[in-house]
Design goal:
With 311 residues, this protein is α/β, with parallel strands linked by helices. It contains 12 helices and 10 strands. It has an 8-stranded parallel barrel, surrounded by 6 helices. The relative contact order is 0.15.
Protein backbone atom coordinates (compact mmCIF):
# COMPACT_ATOMS: atom_id res chain seq x y z
CA UNK A 1 0.00 0.00 0.00
CA UNK A 2 1.33 3.38 -0.97
CA UNK A 3 2.04 5.42 2.16
CA UNK A 4 0.57 8.77 1.30
CA UNK A 5 1.21 11.58 3.75
CA UNK A 6 -1.43 14.13 4.75
CA UNK A 7 -3.98 12.98 2.22
CA UNK A 8 -7.69 12.26 2.50
CA UNK A 9 -9.46 9.08 1.63
CA UNK A 10 -13.14 8.19 1.40
CA UNK A 11 -14.90 5.74 3.70
CA UNK A 12 -18.18 4.19 2.55
CA UNK A 13 -19.64 3.19 5.93
CA UNK A 14 -22.35 5.84 5.74
CA UNK A 15 -23.53 5.13 2.19
CA UNK A 16 -23.44 1.34 1.88
CA UNK A 17 -26.41 0.58 4.14
CA UNK A 18 -29.64 2.40 5.05
CA UNK A 19 -28.93 2.90 8.78
CA UNK A 20 -25.74 4.14 10.41
CA UNK A 21 -24.61 5.90 13.57
CA UNK A 22 -24.16 9.42 12.23
CA UNK A 23 -26.02 12.60 13.10
CA UNK A 24 -28.39 13.98 10.45
CA UNK A 25 -29.19 10.87 8.41
CA UNK A 26 -32.75 12.01 7.85
CA UNK A 27 -31.50 15.28 6.44
CA UNK A 28 -29.08 13.43 4.17
CA UNK A 29 -31.38 10.70 2.90
CA UNK A 30 -34.92 11.08 4.23
CA UNK A 31 -36.92 7.95 3.61
CA UNK A 32 -35.44 7.23 0.19
CA UNK A 33 -33.00 4.50 1.12
CA UNK A 34 -33.73 1.59 -1.17
CA UNK A 35 -30.81 -0.18 -2.80
CA UNK A 36 -31.02 1.71 -6.09
CA UNK A 37 -31.08 5.09 -4.37
CA UNK A 38 -28.16 4.24 -2.09
CA UNK A 39 -26.15 2.89 -5.01
CA UNK A 40 -26.75 6.07 -7.00
CA UNK A 41 -25.67 8.24 -4.07
CA UNK A 42 -22.57 6.14 -3.52
CA UNK A 43 -21.55 6.49 -7.16
CA UNK A 44 -22.11 10.27 -7.01
CA UNK A 45 -19.84 10.57 -3.98
CA UNK A 46 -17.22 8.30 -5.57
CA UNK A 47 -17.29 10.36 -8.77
CA UNK A 48 -16.85 13.57 -6.80
CA UNK A 49 -14.01 12.09 -4.75
CA UNK A 50 -12.19 10.87 -7.83
CA UNK A 51 -12.58 14.25 -9.53
CA UNK A 52 -11.10 15.90 -6.44
CA UNK A 53 -8.06 13.62 -6.49
CA UNK A 54 -9.03 11.15 -3.75
CA UNK A 55 -7.32 7.86 -4.49
CA UNK A 56 -8.04 5.71 -1.43
CA UNK A 57 -11.44 4.15 -0.67
CA UNK A 58 -12.28 2.28 2.54
CA UNK A 59 -15.02 -0.36 2.72
CA UNK A 60 -15.87 -3.43 4.80
CA UNK A 61 -17.90 -6.60 4.51
CA UNK A 62 -20.28 -5.18 7.13
CA UNK A 63 -21.00 -1.93 5.29
CA UNK A 64 -24.16 -3.31 3.72
CA UNK A 65 -23.63 -3.35 -0.05
CA UNK A 66 -20.65 -0.96 -0.05
CA UNK A 67 -18.26 -3.45 -1.65
CA UNK A 68 -20.84 -4.28 -4.32
CA UNK A 69 -21.52 -0.59 -4.99
CA UNK A 70 -17.79 0.11 -5.24
CA UNK A 71 -17.15 -2.87 -7.52
CA UNK A 72 -19.92 -1.74 -9.86
CA UNK A 73 -18.54 1.80 -9.96
CA UNK A 74 -14.98 0.63 -10.64
CA UNK A 75 -16.19 -1.51 -13.55
CA UNK A 76 -18.57 1.09 -14.98
CA UNK A 77 -15.92 3.82 -14.92
CA UNK A 78 -13.25 1.57 -16.41
CA UNK A 79 -10.90 2.06 -13.48
CA UNK A 80 -7.91 -0.24 -13.53
CA UNK A 81 -6.39 -1.83 -10.43
CA UNK A 82 -4.04 0.61 -8.76
CA UNK A 83 -5.68 3.76 -10.10
CA UNK A 84 -7.80 3.81 -6.95
CA UNK A 85 -6.48 1.91 -3.95
CA UNK A 86 -9.09 -0.06 -2.02
CA UNK A 87 -8.94 -1.20 1.58
CA UNK A 88 -11.58 -3.51 3.01
CA UNK A 89 -12.13 -5.21 6.35
CA UNK A 90 -13.31 -8.56 7.67
CA UNK A 91 -14.80 -9.62 10.99
CA UNK A 92 -18.20 -7.96 11.11
CA UNK A 93 -21.13 -9.16 9.03
CA UNK A 94 -24.08 -7.01 8.03
CA UNK A 95 -27.26 -8.61 9.40
CA UNK A 96 -29.66 -5.67 9.20
CA UNK A 97 -31.61 -7.00 6.23
CA UNK A 98 -31.80 -3.47 4.78
CA UNK A 99 -34.21 -2.54 7.56
CA UNK A 100 -34.09 0.68 9.55
CA UNK A 101 -35.68 -1.00 12.56
CA UNK A 102 -33.40 -4.04 12.68
CA UNK A 103 -32.64 -5.23 16.18
CA UNK A 104 -28.99 -5.71 15.17
CA UNK A 105 -27.24 -4.25 12.15
CA UNK A 106 -23.95 -6.13 12.36
CA UNK A 107 -22.46 -9.14 14.10
CA UNK A 108 -18.79 -9.64 14.99
CA UNK A 109 -16.70 -12.81 14.68
CA UNK A 110 -12.90 -12.56 14.40
CA UNK A 111 -12.32 -16.25 13.71
CA UNK A 112 -10.10 -17.65 10.98
CA UNK A 113 -13.16 -19.29 9.42
CA UNK A 114 -14.85 -15.93 8.99
CA UNK A 115 -11.63 -14.41 7.64
CA UNK A 116 -11.40 -17.06 4.96
CA UNK A 117 -15.06 -16.76 3.98
CA UNK A 118 -15.18 -12.98 3.93
CA UNK A 119 -11.89 -12.67 2.09
CA UNK A 120 -13.34 -14.89 -0.61
CA UNK A 121 -16.45 -12.71 -0.79
CA UNK A 122 -14.40 -9.53 -0.98
CA UNK A 123 -12.14 -10.90 -3.69
CA UNK A 124 -15.10 -12.08 -5.72
CA UNK A 125 -16.34 -8.48 -5.83
CA UNK A 126 -13.14 -6.43 -5.84
CA UNK A 127 -10.59 -8.80 -7.35
CA UNK A 128 -7.26 -7.17 -8.13
CA UNK A 129 -8.51 -3.81 -6.86
CA UNK A 130 -8.03 -4.98 -3.26
CA UNK A 131 -4.87 -3.30 -1.93
CA UNK A 132 -5.36 -3.71 1.81
CA UNK A 133 -7.31 -6.16 3.98
CA UNK A 134 -7.84 -5.32 7.65
CA UNK A 135 -9.13 -6.90 10.82
CA UNK A 136 -12.29 -4.96 11.64
CA UNK A 137 -12.26 -3.45 15.14
CA UNK A 138 -9.54 -5.55 16.68
CA UNK A 139 -9.10 -5.38 20.44
CA UNK A 140 -6.61 -6.99 22.79
CA UNK A 141 -9.53 -8.59 24.63
CA UNK A 142 -10.82 -10.33 21.49
CA UNK A 143 -7.67 -12.44 21.29
CA UNK A 144 -7.43 -12.02 17.52
CA UNK A 145 -3.87 -10.67 17.72
CA UNK A 146 -2.80 -13.89 19.45
CA UNK A 147 -4.76 -16.25 17.18
CA UNK A 148 -2.06 -18.08 15.23
CA UNK A 149 -4.56 -19.42 12.71
CA UNK A 150 -5.73 -15.89 11.88
CA UNK A 151 -2.20 -14.52 11.82
CA UNK A 152 -1.10 -17.34 9.54
CA UNK A 153 -3.90 -16.56 7.07
CA UNK A 154 -2.89 -12.89 7.10
CA UNK A 155 0.77 -13.73 6.53
CA UNK A 156 -0.21 -15.83 3.52
CA UNK A 157 -2.31 -12.99 2.15
CA UNK A 158 0.54 -10.55 2.64
CA UNK A 159 2.88 -12.91 0.80
CA UNK A 160 0.51 -12.66 -2.17
CA UNK A 161 1.08 -8.90 -2.30
CA UNK A 162 -1.99 -7.63 -0.43
CA UNK A 163 -1.14 -5.35 2.50
CA UNK A 164 -2.64 -6.36 5.84
CA UNK A 165 -3.82 -4.10 8.62
CA UNK A 166 -6.24 -3.69 11.46
CA UNK A 167 -8.75 -1.15 12.66
CA UNK A 168 -9.14 -0.44 16.36
CA UNK A 169 -12.02 0.54 18.59
CA UNK A 170 -12.87 1.36 22.18
CA UNK A 171 -11.14 3.08 25.07
CA UNK A 172 -8.10 0.76 24.93
CA UNK A 173 -7.09 1.49 21.34
CA UNK A 174 -3.53 2.27 22.44
CA UNK A 175 -3.00 -1.20 23.91
CA UNK A 176 -4.34 -2.80 20.74
CA UNK A 177 -2.06 -0.71 18.54
CA UNK A 178 1.02 -1.57 20.58
CA UNK A 179 0.13 -5.27 20.54
CA UNK A 180 -0.32 -5.17 16.76
CA UNK A 181 3.06 -3.47 16.28
CA UNK A 182 4.70 -6.15 18.43
CA UNK A 183 3.52 -8.90 16.04
CA UNK A 184 5.62 -7.43 13.23
CA UNK A 185 2.90 -8.44 10.78
CA UNK A 186 0.88 -5.37 9.95
CA UNK A 187 1.38 -2.74 7.26
CA UNK A 188 -1.32 -0.35 8.48
CA UNK A 189 -3.41 0.59 11.48
CA UNK A 190 -6.74 2.42 11.23
CA UNK A 191 -7.85 4.11 14.43
CA UNK A 192 -10.30 6.65 15.76
CA UNK A 193 -8.63 9.97 16.48
CA UNK A 194 -10.44 13.27 16.66
CA UNK A 195 -10.64 16.41 18.79
CA UNK A 196 -12.84 14.59 21.29
CA UNK A 197 -10.96 11.26 21.38
CA UNK A 198 -7.16 11.72 21.39
CA UNK A 199 -6.16 8.76 23.54
CA UNK A 200 -4.59 6.73 20.71
CA UNK A 201 -2.27 9.51 19.57
CA UNK A 202 0.95 8.41 21.26
CA UNK A 203 0.46 4.78 20.25
CA UNK A 204 -0.18 5.85 16.66
CA UNK A 205 3.05 7.83 16.74
CA UNK A 206 4.84 4.66 17.87
CA UNK A 207 3.18 2.65 15.11
CA UNK A 208 4.22 5.24 12.54
CA UNK A 209 7.81 5.16 13.84
CA UNK A 210 7.73 1.37 13.49
CA UNK A 211 6.85 1.69 9.81
CA UNK A 212 3.07 1.23 9.80
CA UNK A 213 0.93 3.57 7.72
CA UNK A 214 -1.71 5.24 9.91
CA UNK A 215 -5.28 5.70 8.68
CA UNK A 216 -7.49 7.99 10.78
CA UNK A 217 -11.18 7.18 10.99
CA UNK A 218 -14.10 9.01 12.62
CA UNK A 219 -12.34 12.37 12.36
CA UNK A 220 -15.66 14.15 12.83
CA UNK A 221 -16.83 11.80 15.60
CA UNK A 222 -19.95 10.43 13.87
CA UNK A 223 -21.23 13.97 13.28
CA UNK A 224 -20.42 15.40 16.70
CA UNK A 225 -17.76 17.65 15.13
CA UNK A 226 -19.91 18.91 12.25
CA UNK A 227 -22.43 21.74 12.12
CA UNK A 228 -24.96 19.23 13.43
CA UNK A 229 -23.28 18.75 16.77
CA UNK A 230 -20.11 20.80 17.06
CA UNK A 231 -19.21 22.28 20.44
CA UNK A 232 -19.34 26.11 20.58
CA UNK A 233 -15.54 26.42 20.75
CA UNK A 234 -15.16 24.52 17.48
CA UNK A 235 -17.93 26.50 15.81
CA UNK A 236 -16.22 29.75 16.80
CA UNK A 237 -12.74 28.65 15.74
CA UNK A 238 -14.07 27.45 12.37
CA UNK A 239 -15.98 30.68 11.80
CA UNK A 240 -12.85 32.72 12.53
CA UNK A 241 -11.02 30.77 9.81
CA UNK A 242 -13.87 30.88 7.31
CA UNK A 243 -14.39 27.10 7.22
CA UNK A 244 -16.93 24.60 8.49
CA UNK A 245 -16.42 22.77 11.80
CA UNK A 246 -15.87 19.44 10.06
CA UNK A 247 -13.09 20.90 7.90
CA UNK A 248 -11.28 22.28 10.93
CA UNK A 249 -11.71 19.00 12.82
CA UNK A 250 -10.26 17.04 9.90
CA UNK A 251 -7.44 19.56 9.56
CA UNK A 252 -6.52 18.75 13.16
CA UNK A 253 -6.14 15.09 12.20
CA UNK A 254 -4.20 15.89 9.03
CA UNK A 255 -1.77 17.95 11.10
CA UNK A 256 -0.67 14.98 13.22
CA UNK A 257 2.85 14.06 12.06
CA UNK A 258 1.97 10.37 12.17
CA UNK A 259 -1.23 10.63 10.12
CA UNK A 260 -1.06 9.11 6.65
CA UNK A 261 -4.62 8.96 5.32
CA UNK A 262 -7.51 10.74 7.04
CA UNK A 263 -10.88 9.38 6.00
CA UNK A 264 -13.88 11.43 5.02
CA UNK A 265 -17.09 9.57 5.82
CA UNK A 266 -19.18 11.91 3.67
CA UNK A 267 -22.66 10.72 2.77
CA UNK A 268 -23.26 13.42 0.14
CA UNK A 269 -21.19 15.32 -2.39
CA UNK A 270 -21.77 18.55 -0.43
CA UNK A 271 -20.34 16.98 2.72
CA UNK A 272 -17.37 15.66 0.76
CA UNK A 273 -16.63 19.11 -0.64
CA UNK A 274 -16.69 20.60 2.87
CA UNK A 275 -14.49 17.81 4.22
CA UNK A 276 -11.91 18.24 1.48
CA UNK A 277 -11.40 21.92 2.29
CA UNK A 278 -9.50 20.59 5.32
CA UNK A 279 -6.54 20.04 3.00
CA UNK A 280 -6.18 23.81 2.63
CA UNK A 281 -6.65 24.66 6.31
CA UNK A 282 -3.59 25.60 8.33
CA UNK A 283 -3.70 24.00 11.75
CA UNK A 284 -1.64 26.17 14.09
CA UNK A 285 -0.74 26.53 17.74
CA UNK A 286 -3.62 28.94 18.26
CA UNK A 287 -6.13 26.34 17.08
CA UNK A 288 -4.44 23.66 19.17
CA UNK A 289 -4.74 25.74 22.33
CA UNK A 290 -8.28 26.92 21.61
CA UNK A 291 -9.60 23.39 21.10
CA UNK A 292 -7.50 21.31 23.49
CA UNK A 293 -10.30 21.45 26.04
CA UNK A 294 -12.65 19.49 23.79
CA UNK A 295 -10.85 16.23 24.56
CA UNK A 296 -12.93 13.76 26.55
CA UNK A 297 -11.87 10.87 28.74
CA UNK A 298 -11.72 7.81 26.50
CA UNK A 299 -14.29 5.88 28.54
CA UNK A 300 -16.68 8.83 28.33
CA UNK A 301 -16.19 9.24 24.59
CA UNK A 302 -16.84 5.60 23.77
CA UNK A 303 -19.83 5.47 26.09
CA UNK A 304 -21.35 8.43 24.28
CA UNK A 305 -20.58 6.90 20.91
CA UNK A 306 -22.29 3.66 21.93
CA UNK A 307 -25.41 5.63 22.83
CA UNK A 308 -25.77 7.13 19.34
CA UNK A 309 -28.76 5.63 17.52
CA UNK A 310 -28.68 3.82 14.20
CA UNK A 311 -30.74 6.18 12.07
Amino acid sequence: MRKWLQEMGLGLAAVGRPAYITLGRDEDFGGDRDVAAMRARTWEVLDAARAAGVRYVDVARSYGLAEEFLAGWLADRGIRPGEVEVGSKWGYEYVGGWRMDAGRHEEKDLSAARLRRQLGETRELLGAHLSLYQIHSATVESGVLDDEEVLGELRALRAEGVAVGLSTTGPRQAATIDRAVATGLFDTVQSTWNLLERSAGEALARAHAAGLAVIVKEGVANGRLTVRGAPPALVLAARERGVTPDALALAAALARPWAGIVLSGAATTAQLAENLTALAVTWDEEAEKALAGLAEDAETYWSRRAALPWA
